[in-house]
Amino acid sequence: MAKPQRISLKSARRLALTAQGFSGAQQAPGKSTRWQALSKVIDNLNLLQIDSVNVLSRSHYLPLFSRLGSYDKAVLDKHTLAAKNRRCFEYWAHEASILPYRYQPLLRWRMDDARNGTGIYKGLVDFAAEKSEVIARTLEKVRAEGPLRPRDFGQPAVRSGEWWGWNDNKTALEYLFWTGDVTTARRDGFERLYDVPERVFPDDTHAAPSPDRADAIRELARHSARALGISTETDIRDYFRLPVADARQAVADLVESGELHTVEVRGWNKPGYIWHEAKSARSFERATLLSPFDPLVWNRERAERLFNFRYRIEIYTPAPKRQFGYYVLPVLIGEQLSGRLCMKADRQAGTLRVNAAWHEDGIDPGAASEAIAPALHDMSRWLGLERVEIAGRGNMSESLKSAFKN
C-alpha cells in the first residue's frame, strides 16, 4: 500500500477554506439578492444550523453574510421559512437545521431510529413510553387542523421538567418532529407551526423512496467530506452527527471508491482525508465575521486543529466567569482566525455594539482592526443599524476604535 501524501497545515487550511466558500468575492453592498446566489452557498454547506439566540442575528442568516456580504434576508426567508415557494425543510442534521429537500429521504433512518428509541434524547424516549396517548392525540389534531402552534393546543407552558416551557403537547410535537410524523409548515416570527409532511413537502420529496440505511449514511458522509474539503473521520461524522460505526464504514467505502484520499497533515494525530475534487485557492483576502454555529468553527476541536484557535461559546457561562463575552464571533482575516468580537445588535438604539474585541497571539491588532472595520460597517448596514460603537474591553478594542476614526 502506498504511503499517504503528507501536506502542511497551511495547505490543509486552504483546502478547508476553499471548500467552505471563503475564496470567492463578496457581493457589493446594495446589490439585489438572487435566490440562486443564496442557494449556491446552502448547497455548498449542505445546511444552515438554526439557533434561537437573537442577540445579534439568528444564526442561520450569518453563514451567508460571512460568504456573500450584505444580502436581503427576506429572500432567504421566502425560500426557507415561508409557507409557499420553499426549497428547504427543517430537521435534525448537525443540530436543528435548514436543508434542501433532497436531504429528506437521506435522513429517514434517523426518523426510524427515533421511533425505535435510539439517537434521540432520553427524555423524549421516556415521554413516548409513558404518554403514547398524548402523542397520538397531538398527531390527530395536527392532521385535522394543522398547521398549528404549540399554544393552539390550549395547554399553558410550564417551568418544570427537562425542557423549560415545554408542556405535554409541545413535548409530543417535538417527539413527532424527530420521528418525521410532523414537520415545520412555516415560521411566524421564529415560532414553528407544525403540520404533517404530506401537506408541506413537494410531491416528489414525499413520494421519494427511502434509501437503504447504509447507502443514506454513505451519501451524507460524501456530502460532508465535500463540504469540508479536508477532514478526519470524526469531522465527517460530526457534520451530520452520524453514528460512529456507520460513519466509519462510510468513510472506508469512500476511500475504497477513490472519492476520499488518505493524507497525513503535519501536526495532526489522526489520519486526514481529502475530497477527490477538493481545490485550493491561491489567496484569501477576505475579512469577515463568523457565527458561533458556522460550519467552519462549529466543531471546536477541528477549529483548534486547523487554526490553533480555541473557541467555546459562553452564552450559558455565568457572566463573571466569561473569558471573552456573551455572544462572540470569530474573526476570519485571510487564512487565519485572527480574533474574536463580542457583539450585540442594539435595535432600539440603532447601534451595532462591539462589547469586547480580542486579537489572537501573534496578530498585529492595528492591521487586524483595519481589515475587519469594513466588515463591521457592512454588518451594521445589513442589520439595519445606523452606527457601530466599540467598547473598551479586550486587547484589540483601542486599535479597533482607531480604525473607525480613520
Structure description:
With 406 residues, this protein is α+β, with helices and mostly antiparallel strands. The chain is 39% helix and 18% strand. It has 16 helices and 14 strands. The chain has helices at 9-19, 35-45, 62-68, 73-80, 108-115, 122-130, 132-145, 168-179, 197-200, 203-206, 213-228, 233-239, 244-256, 300-307, 365-382, 397-405, and strands at residues 5-7, 48-49, 88-92, 96-100, 183-188, 191-195, 230-231, 260-265, 272-275, 287-289, 328-333, 336-346, 351-359, 387-393. The strands form four sheets. A five-stranded mixed beta sheet has the order 10-11-12-13-14. A four-stranded mixed beta sheet has the order 1-8-9-7. The chain starts with a strand and ends with a helix.
Nutshell version of this structure?
The chain is an alpha+beta fold. The protein has helices at 9-19, 35-45, 62-68, 73-80, 108-115, 122-130, 132-145, 168-179, 197-200, 203-206, 213-228, 233-239, 244-256, 300-307, 365-382, 397-405, and strands spanning 5-7, 48-49, 88-92, 96-100, 183-188, 191-195, 230-231, 260-265, 272-275, 287-289, 328-333, 336-346, 351-359, 387-393.
